[in-house]
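I am still learning, so can you show me any protein sequence you like together with the matching structure tokens, please?
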Amino acid sequence: MAESKIMFSWKAGFGLFHADAQLVGEEILSIGESATAQQVLEKGRDDSTELHKCFEWRDDVAAEKYRLDQAKLVLRQLVFTRSEEQIKDKKPEIRVFHVTEQSKVGEYKPLPMIIKNDDEYQKLLQIAYAELHAWKMKYQNLQELDYILSLIP
């Protein structure tokens, strides 16, 4: 039986790259059975590749984008401080800041402020449902998760 071709596309709403997703995916597959981010970057350095279009090559612009990514990382990694009781009960950490807009320049707000604003709370719920659905699609072939996956609409 012939091996089926993997079809690639960018996630919905993801318009940062002006590169053909199919070609990019095939170039990444050409690296080997697995690829590291470093290998993808090295392949992208070749300006004849489609991957090349996925990177910012002007150092001054790239440096600023890197610092913005670091700022986003700070916002994503802050969590509410847990009490000793919560630590003993192994309760999950809760992120403090969440993106309130689905745009290239998302706005981060503390969760308690989002909960107080019904429109922002509804948007956060939509994002949560979309992430759950994406997680469900990602792991739908794992039979061990059938029960958990059945709980996700």
The helical segments are 21-29, 37-44, 59-77, 84-88, 111-116, 118-138, 146-150.
